[in-house]
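Table S2 (text version). Query chain:
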Amino acid sequence: MANFIVSQEAEVNTLNLLIAQLLAPSYMHLLGAATTIDPSTTLSTLLAAESTFPGYAAAALGTWSTPVIDGSGAAASTCATGTFYNTGGVSYPTYGLFVTDYGATQLWGCEAFSSPVMIAPGLGFNNTITYTCLSRY
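Corresponding structure-token output:
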């Protein structure tokens, strides 16, 4: 039996639909505690580890680039930067990020940083995210 093939055109179309229906009204959150990220990671685990430093709020992600086929053959789109501010008097570490729907009831993806990023007092942290869609076959 032959494999069902998702062409690159279909990957772009799928990513456009994902952006319009799921990603455009999404939020980026920061992790304030070291958290294991693997295929079994749950939203409840990530929410329990979410940052709480002064000035922190999840960042709305609404502007995504037009999907294009990248060097790996995947449809890829990059989002405008998620920006977070530390209004406290000390530096706070962030260990990664996760993206949810508007109400933080659905998990769209997560990432652990290779080492903690310190957010100094009075400064911000910017992060750009790329979402890809690639057929297995």
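Notes on Table S2: The chain has two helices and nine strands. The two ends are 13 Å apart (CA to CA).
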